[in-house]
Amino acid sequence: MDLSLDLDAFALARDAADPLARFRSEFLIPTHRGQDMHYFCGNSLGLQPRGAQRAIAEELNAWATNAVEGHFCGERPWMHYQSALRDSMARVVGALPSEVVVMNSLTVNLHLLMASFYRPTKERPAILIEAGSFPSDRHATASQVQFHGFDLETDLIELQPDGPGGTISMAAIERVLEEHGHRIALVLWPGVQYRTGQAFDLAAITKMAHAKGCMVGFDLAHAVGNLPLALHDSGADFAAWCTYKYLNSGPGAVAGAFVHELHARRPDLPRLAGWWGHRAETRFLMAPEFDPADGAEGWQQSNPPILAMASIRASLELFDAATMPALRAKSLELTGYLESLVRKHLEGVIEILTPAEPTQRGCQLSLRVIGGRERGRALFEYLADNGVLGDWREPDVIRISPAPLYNRHTDVLAAVRGIRDWAST
User: Fold this and answer.
1) What span, in angstroms and rounded, lies between the C-alpha atoms of 353 and 365?
2) Is the dihedral of CA 369, 370, 372, 376 positive or negative?
3) Using one digit for the tens of pLDDT, what is the confidence trace for 160-206?
4) Is 76 within 8 Å of 304 (Cβ atoms)?
5) 79 CB contacts (<8 Å, ≥6 apart)?
6) Domains along the chain?
7) Distance between alpha carbon 267 and the CA centroid of its chain, in Å?
8) Distance between CA atoms of 175 and 173, rounded to whole angstroms?
9) CA dihedral sign, ordered 403, 407, 408, 409
């Protein structure tokens, strides 16, 4: 079968039957030559919700109207603004509200959490990460190992891929924990690996690592808003994520963090404390002693940036309305449709690196362009010039991530048709 009008009819029919179709109109879609762009970069920067400008304007107006009293009056007093985000964010990540906080940026949060949960000793100094981890994670973990005076050569363990497309099996994780678990202080693992799009079983990894006496944290930058998560039930000690990808909260938006309730009030657990992490009931007594708030809020350091957090509120309102189970159902259909078109029509042009098993991936398919970097880059630029924007990763991978809040079957078909047209020239 070629990419015929029958496929147009199918894609249009599926989009017409989509129960989440109305959410597309809640976003500002970039245009290309007068037409809506086919945008597949939600795994890098999500589109702007129409409500973001309104939400920011509301806080600007509160500032203009109330000045410092905006901390205590109005519809959303700034003193408690984090609480207005907490419940919605907890639903997205599958956590108790007390286990979640919106603060800082992703790597800052990883360092703050590692200050508490990476407590190396001479006998147990190591951190386990995946080889080829996102550079920020590699930089953060390497610097933590060095900061504590240990040796990167032996104490930053980077597990090499053992599966097709650069994926890592659960058996490989189990093997490295069997061999090195007695030396590993912390396992820091991705929820979804950024390069391959592989999703991991957080609960299974946590169980294996805890059995060896390791603390466990997750970088969920590519998982939050993409996959239904159950952070509380996973038993993970901590997690951190950004909000500008699938959560559509704007470039450099304020990040999120999770601390399991088991660590809510542990006096033996050190942390890098700040005034805003002090218990709210006594914070303004200005006592010199630090009395941490229960739960994840106790890791806060500074007065939250209200204007930056307003756009997160606008996005989370859409997630509450759509719900993660419904978004996941559409995501499975959209990404499955993309996979089926690639396998049927792009053989010899594209290799899919992402696992075929739907439970081992989210929205993203990582597509390796057969023939090397020059061909890959030529295809990427051709697609962009024709209104299909994916995400380039060196040396030869285009990541296509159909986000269920705003992408459609017709977008997916346009992407595959664009690749086919390029390959035919």
Assistant:
1) 7
2) negative
3) 999 999 999 999 999 999 999 999 999 999 999 999 999 999 999 99
4) no
5) 71, 72, 280
6) 5-18+323-424 (3.90.1150.10), 56-320 (3.40.640.10)
7) 30
8) 5
9) negative
